[in-house]
């Protein structure tokens, strides 16, 4: 059994500083109903936020509001990227943030 020690002099040279992630590196996903319901609610909130971000960004650059098809593709792509992020074990999804719209000029 390994222990966490602070007096190891070769810790900097033996640490794994660069690693290439691969799908399911932490094992097969385990689904619990309670956490799945929480994630569904969070995903719905993120979807509403993303729709607002799409409209706000289009207004910021003086374009027409996005059509329902464009919004649908954007939400679908964010969902696909979130699934990929989960498979690679990042623990976070992909979504647009309204906080970043102010950088568009």
Automatic annotation (TrEMBL):
It is a multi-pass membrane protein. GO terms for cellular component: membrane. Its main location: membrane. The keyword NAD does not apply. The chain crosses the membrane at residues 31-54. It holds the Pfam family Xan_ur_permease. Keywords: Membrane, Transmembrane, Transmembrane helix. GO terms for molecular function: transmembrane transporter activity. InterPro entries: NCS2. It is found in: Membrane. The keyword Repeat does not apply. Belongs to the nucleobase:cation symporter-2 (NCS2) (TC 2.A.40) family. This is Uncharacterized protein. It comes from Cuscuta campestris.
